[in-house]
């Protein structure tokens, strides 16, 4: 088929790669000058299938109320009372019970574990490099309460057969020796040894090159106006209207993240809302004080990730609509976390500061598969896990679009799951 992929973030480019490998003619359209220049640009850098957890969880509504008044809150809500925001928040609240949490986490981990396997296979087949590390992820706890609360996640990990290590304050240092310099007491951690790290932007850029080498065309600096839909009998997508031309297609795959519902407004209700996050990237100045892999600070919901000669610190969540302004207090929180856990490891004064909008669904599970509009497919809504789930999501949607049965269960990933909610 002649397939158009909308968006060249990590989800779009991995989708284009797997579609091309299955013999399709693929064109990728993006308004930016290159790949991975939006949400994929400076994310936390972690590939953490075992930590694939829903934002909607038991106790989150109460925590959200407390966090609203905290100085370094991991979550900030600025209600704008738009219909989209209200519907999304109400739907998310419905998912904040134990039954929904367990269901959502199970399918998220299923997809994320498969995605890691696909990334390993891709790396073996292509030799793609992206400053990756395969030394696991460690979630660190500053209190016994946090350590005890990890039991519900451990139960799901056990059910899914995901390897893990529960660490005390001493064995924590075996995984991350530089935490011996931490300025705050740490009571222990939960380590997932099979997790990985890497620079998502670098990966996406290199995969773009691989895509071009197998025939994928990229149309950068091209604004997508709307879809060309034939409503003669049943709604059918026949192409994409851009700023200066109309491109015909046998199928269109939308991988536009937070911009997906904007493009499809009036055609399809897609429950994705932008959750704003921040990161800083700083050069390492003392190797002995730097992290080995990714460390998640449970208190502030911030990830600290090691690249070759840099440290990426990312996290926090703000419901501010599509606002992308940089807020100084958020940088201060990120600097506080790196200075608490890894003091004098990197030069915070030389850090670059970035913000991006994560595409989050009410149940935190991405929307992957066909839609009620014929020939229109979705691969969007990955939240904070776009990098973690990219290869698996792309392989699943490529299989579905090629009329193949995916390697994992996928029926509960498409948009029809919201039909009765």
Could you explain how this protein is built, in words?
Strands 4, 5, 6, 7, 14, 15, 16, 17 and 18 form a 9-stranded mixed β-sheet that branches. 31% of the residues lie in helices and 24% in strands. The protein is α/β, with parallel strands linked by helices and 421 residues long. It is globular, with a radius of gyration of 21 Å.
List the helices and strands and how they pair.
Layout: E1 2-6, H1 10-21, E2 25-29, E3 46-47, H2 60-67, E4 75-77, H3 83-94, H4 98-126, E5 137-141, H5 144-149, H6 151-160, E6 165-168, H7 172-175, E7 188-192, E8 196-197, H8 200-213, E9 217-219, E10 224-230, E11 236-242, E12 246-248, E13 251-254, H9 260-263, E14 273-283, E15 294-297, E16 302-306, E17 310-319, H10 328-341, E18 352-360, E19 367-370, E20 376-380, H11 386-401
Parallel strand pairs: 1-2, 1-13, 2-9, 4-17, 5-15, 13-20
Antiparallel strand pairs: 3-8, 5-7, 6-7, 10-11, 11-12, 14-17, 14-18, 15-16, 16-17, 19-20
Helix pairs in contact: 1-8, 1-11, 4-11
CA radius of gyration is: 21 Å
Task: Give the CA-based shape.
Answer: globular
Helix content percent band: 25-40%
Backbone structural class: alpha/beta
Strand content: 15-25%
